[in-house]
Write a structure and sequence with these properties.
The complex is a heterotrimer of chains A (286), B (344) and C (287). Chain A is mostly helical. In chain A, 74% of the residues lie in helices and 0% in strands. Chain B is elongated. The chains are: A mainly alpha (286), B alpha+beta (344), C mainly alpha (287).
Chain lengths: 286, 344, 287
């Protein structure tokens, strides 16, 4: 996981000392001012606007909130988003691990091209992602497959934009694995499947879990790639993010905020989960 | 007096790194701060440098109070265990760094860098990057960099700790000669008692945040103030209620009638090079005693094959009472290094 | 020099584990999967753009709406990348080099923008900076400063979604390099600013460049958040991605302009990835 998430535990947490209260901070005037400015900017840009979403969602209390979420069209959109994100995450766990395995343990001409291909969904604008998927799986498909405006299109778009997550979290862990450990297991009589299941997989599990969590969060929040591809048919292919936009365009900001708050809370939950995973990884590394 | 430390204490959370340290380091001296890892010696060095601030107490350098002065204004040269090379700068640029911060004229800097690189024998590497140097060369570069600013004191934090044994030995020798040439007050931290005894004029033995003893290497070795000092600076074994050096024990196959002589059974008889190590189970002792002597002495005393022996401490033996509650284990018979087991 | 982001000196020689049959099967599955999901679809954007030959593409490139959209996108991306670089380097230094109450929470929160749906970002900004109903919007409006449905809103939305990218690149490098060199510089007399410009900045240079390139690619391609705060008025707030959508949904028209704009964006994304892949090893070699 990224260093941003990995807590630094190189020094014991400060606790009251007998002689004098130890300093809980290493900030001086200069860095303190810097932190103040950074916090003001971060608040104006991120914290206050996200708080505004929660405040707006809470207007009218639980009843109004529940009413907004239980609107059939909204409930269907949230349900579809969650189910599609779960299914796609399950596929990513398998395919992402397999792709990472092939990229790390195998070598063939064009492997490096695949490395760039994996990152492409990160860098490609989502509206373009939707456009290119529509080109291959839409009405003018050279394959003769047309899934535009169906729920399969939703899954397809999610698969595209979430492709890098599991691959990119598993890959570095796989690179770090010592081959000696696997060789030792093999020398003790374990077959390839047993070695993978009992030696490799447990080491990869935290990375796979982090990748899966990020993939799930990304799927939930996806918007741009669906605009052209899924048709956003109410009660059928409309996802939560599109529903929010529908509310905004219909000037129902409360409804928009209610759905947004659900996505926001899931995003927060994922952050907390990732923090726990990264702690676990750090702990193991100690 | 060059460095005066008064009542310095330092805590990290509830861990006491230093507890009420008083220490005076004379000008021009080469002093070692010696002690086990985590004992607080590096923290003390960093407090002298201003890289860490003490919770209480004062530090004066050359008679000037430096307690609240930031590191960059203290004029100390600091050498780190892992070199702290500026990786994006060449060797010459590394050495020039402190001078260019001081806005010295270009010509002066060039001359000083040349002089310093000559001192550390790195002239031919001036335009290389640190990544292209060996560990020993990098550490010499770091020394040149620290010395280039003509510091009032030179501080070295485990300067040879990251190097392999052979290079470490060379650099020790070299540091001592360098000090003879440059005469700057030098303090270095080490956990290796052999290194401290070999290089330093004065030793400060620090353990658990306290100073155990200050003195020359002879003083510490021959007149240890505590059992800790004694066991840290060389092999020890228990004899009766005292700690004693294994080579300060005499041994015979028959009673000699010396005071304090104790009989015992030979457990192990081990020849290591020119030395013979004999482990003896003494009557009434909790742990066996270790006796070392030369092969010639062993042969003369007819000890080979002996089962029953009599052991005594020689007349001028250094003896320190065994501390209560924590008996010092007998040095294992295979150990020839001046390395009390467990403390490194 | 290897040009892929993962191949480093430390990389063990790839081992051919498993039987040949399984290995070929794994390879085939991965290549077919990536081919059908990414390679083929993305390549179609070029095919479709040039479906009518080179002429229509050249004509589309001279479409004033397209030129305006790309200019607006570039300017927006420039400002948001500039803001995020300054903020990102600063906050990374604070998070890695200092201890203060709430540091852990802040460290987790700066990653939040990556997990927030772009539409939610747009909505959040709308609720605060909206000209009529926002918390601060009416006051700013009265002071003659329009945020939403204007370029500042585009910059804010883009900055929000790109916020963690520089930080995520810089913090690991700062953690890994440690503070020895900075302390050595301090002991040699360097002040905080001198340490930053002469030691820290050269150390994190490649990480910053890497973060800037990634942010720039992401900023150019932002769609959802921009969609909400822009209003999508051609020649005023229509960015490149909004142009792609609008032109594609125009009925009856050939989609050449949409595909041309999409192709441009794809090429920029690819170039960014390749630049970053080329930079990454040179950065790792130094550390």
């Amino acid at each position: 996981m990224s260093g941003v998430l990995a807590p630094d535990r190189s020094r014991p947490e400060p606790a009251p000392a007998p002689r004098r209260r130890p300093r809980r901070t290493t900030l001086d005037r200069r860095s303190g001012t810097g932190l103040g400015l950074a916090l003001i900017w971060f608040s104006l840009l991120v914290l206050i606007p996200l708080t505004a979403v929660l405040v707006k969602a809470s207007e009218g209390g639980w009843t109004a909130y529940w009413a907004a979420l239980s609107d059939p069209q909204t409930a269907a959109a949230i349900g579809l988003t969650i189910v599609a994100a779960l299914v796609v995450t399950a596929i990513n766990v398998v395919m992402g691990t397999l792709i990472a395995w092939v990229l790390v343990r195998d070598d063939f001409p064009g492997r490096r091209v695949l490395e760039v291909v994996i990152d492409l969904p990160f860098a490609l604008p989502t509206i373009v992602a939707g456009l290119v998927l529509l080109s291959l799986y839409g009405p003018h498909s050279p394959l003769g497959i047309n899934v535009a405006n169906t729920r399969i299109a939703v899954g397809l778009a999610f698969l595209f934009v979430t492709l890098p997550f599991v691959v990119r979290t598993v890959q570095p862990v796989l690179l770090e694995l010592e081959p000696e450990v696997e060789e030792a297991a093999a020398s003790l009589g374990a077959g390839p499947v047993t070695v993978f299941r009992r030696i490799v997989l447990p080491s990869l599990a935290p990375a796979i879990a982090s990748g899966a969590a990020m993939s799930f969060a990304r799927g939930l929040s996806e918007f741009g790639s669906l605009v052209l591809l899924s048709g956003s048919l109410p009660l059928h292919t409309e996802v939560a993010a599109v529903r929010i936009l529908g509310y905004i365009e219909g000037d129902n900001l409360h409804g928009a905020a209610a759905v947004a708050s659900v996505l926001l809370l899931v995003a927060l939950a994922v952050i907390v989960l990732l923090d726990l995973f990264s702690r676990k990884v750090t702990h193991r590394a100690d | 007096m060059s460095i005066e430390i008064r009542s310095v204490s330092k805590h990290f959370g509830d861990f006491t790194a230093l507890s009420d340290i008083d220490l005076t380091i004379p000008t021009g001296d080469l002093t070692a701060l010696l002690g086990p890892s985590g004992g607080g010696k590096s923290t003390l060095l960093r407090i002298i440098a201003g890289l860490e601030s003490a919770d209480t107490g004062t530090v004066a350098i050359e008679g000037v109070d430096a307690t609240g002065v930031p590191a960059r204004k203290r004029d100390v040269g600091f050498v780190f265990q892992h070199y702290a090379a500026f990786r994006h700068l060449t060797v010459a640029e590394n050495v020039a760094f402190g001078l260019s911060i001081r806005k010295q004229p270009r010509k002066v800097i060039a001359e000083r860098v040349e002089e310093m690189l000559e001192l550390v024998h790195l002239q031919q590497f001036a335009d290389r990057h640190p990544a292209q140097l060996s560990g020993g060369q990098r550490q010499r570069m770091a020394l040149a960099r620290a010395l280039a600013i003509r510091p009032r004191v030179l501080l070295l934090d485990e300067p040879f700790g990251a190097l392999d044994a052979k290079v470490r030995k060379e650099l020790r020798e070299w540091l001592r000669r360098l000090h003879d040439e440059v005469h700057v007050t030098t303090v270095f931290v080490t956990h290796d008692q052999e290194e401290a005894l070999e290089v330093a004029h004065h030793l400060v033995l620090i353990n658990q945040g306290r100073i155990e003893q200050v003195g020359t290497s002879d003083q510490l070795y021959d007149e240890p103030a505590t059992s800790f000092v004694m066991s840290f600076l060389g092999p020890v074994t228990t004899f009766g209620n005292t700690l004693v050096r294994p080579h300060d024990l005499g041994i015979a196959t028959a009673p000699t009638g010396r005071p304090g002589e104790v009989g015992g059974r030979v457990l192990r008889y081990n020849r290591v090079g020119f030395e013979v190590q004999i482990e003896v189970d003494l009557a009434g002792a909790a742990a066996p005693a270790l006796v070392t002597l030369t092969r010639r002495e062993a042969a003369e005393a007819g000890l080979a094959g002996a089962e029953q022996v009599w052991v005594h401490a020689v007349a001028d033996a250094v003896r320190v009472p065994v501390p209560h509650a924590e008996p010092v284990p007998a040095v294992s018979a295979g150990s020839r290094e001046l390395d009390p087991s467990g403390v490194r | 020099m290897p040009t892929d982001p993962v191949a480093t000196d430390a990389r063990p020689t790839p081992r051919r584990s498993g039987g040949g049959l399984f290995r070929n099967l794994r390879r085939a599955v991965v290549i077919v999967y990536l081919g059908l999901l990414v390679i083929w679809p993305v390549s179609l954007v070029a095919v479709n753009a040039f479906a009518g030959g080179v002429g229509p593409v050249l004509a589309a490139l001279q479409d004033p709406a397209l030129i305006f959209a790309f200019q607006l996108t570039l300017v927006t991306a420039f400002w948001s990348v500039a803001l995020n670089t300054v903020f990102g380097v600063g906050i990374s230094l604070l998070l890695v080099r200092h201890r203060f109450p709430g540091r852990r929470i802040l460290s987790a929160l700066v990653d939040l923008p990556l997990s927030v749906s772009p539409v939610v970002v747009g909505l959040a900004l709308l609720l605060v900076y909206g000209g009529t109903t926002g918390w601060f919007g009416p006051a700013l409006q009265a002071a003659g400063f329009q945020v939403i449905y204007a370029p500042p809103g585009l910059v804010l939305a883009t900055t929000f979604v790109c916020l963690p990218l520089v930080i995520r690149e810089v913090t690991p490098v700062l953690i890994e390099t440690g503070t020895d060199a900075e302390q050595a510089a301090a002991s040699l007399g360097a002040g905080p600013w001198q340490i930053f410009t002469r030691i820290t900045l050269p150390t994190i240079k490649w990480a910053v460049v890497y973060g800037v390139v990634l942010s720039f690619a992401r900023a150019l391609g932002e769609y959802g958040a921009v969609k909400v705060v822009s209003g999508g008025v051609a020649f005023r707030t229509q960015t490149a991605t909004l142009l792609v959508e609008e032109r594609y949904q125009q009925f009856g028209a050939t989609h050449t302009t949409a595909y041309t704009a999409a192709l441009l964006l794809t090429v920029i994304a690819l170039v960014a990835l390749i630049v970053v892949a080329a930079l990454r090893p040179s950065q790792e070699k130094r550390s």
